Amino acid sequence: MSLLDRTGGTPPRTLPAESFWRTVAAGAVGGGLVGLLTGGVLGRLLMRLLTVTSPSSARGRFTDDLAPVGRISVDGTLVLFATTITLGAIAGLVYLWVRRVLPSTPRTRAWLFALFTGSIGGAILVHDHPSFDYSVLKPEWLSVMSFIAIPTLFGLVVPAVIDRLDAAGGWARRGPVAAWAVAGAAVLNLALLVVAVPVAVAFGISRSPALTGLWRSRAVTVAGRVLFVVLVAWGLYGIAADVASIATDTPSGAPLSP
Q: What's the confidence (pLDDT) of residue 14?
């Protein structure tokens, strides 16, 4: 299954245009919703927990993302929610591509995608020494585990949400396709500029029987799985390098770290 294949049943040789856009909307909306819950709501709670467990001298200072420690504002919360919705929507579209090479078993697919998002997302979110978030906020292990757990939990939950939306009879299969397109565009926000080209390429592939057949070929499947493993390994390498840097209080010299 992939962005070019509907979940459930035997896909047609090419995907009808309306079905394609419903799938894209399911990925963006489902990803945005899970991003809000895991990165926005849970992320806000974990930030509050780190405020409580950190020394009082950390309060009022600014994190790596320029957020004041210990200060919760409506504006700051709305920005966090908007950001996590958009990032979740992008990750939801990534899932539509990645699930092409994942097992068909829902549970296995979810755990593997969680490994993917946890490794890549964790490597991006965790910074090496002397990052404020991982040197001033205490305990350091809680900071590290929190920002690995958030993308991991996202990856564990989002496959079920998107697959359910996109399944036959799912919400993304009901109502006007235009309404779903607007909803997908809304959660992506300015990220539309980033995803427009890859989505357009996917649409072009979905309209060509030859390209659709190539996309579903064994060669592409094998290449995709190899790339999946490489990216997971790269993410785990980045996390290991950052953890070593934090533990030794020395900047990381690891080359090509995410």
A: 52
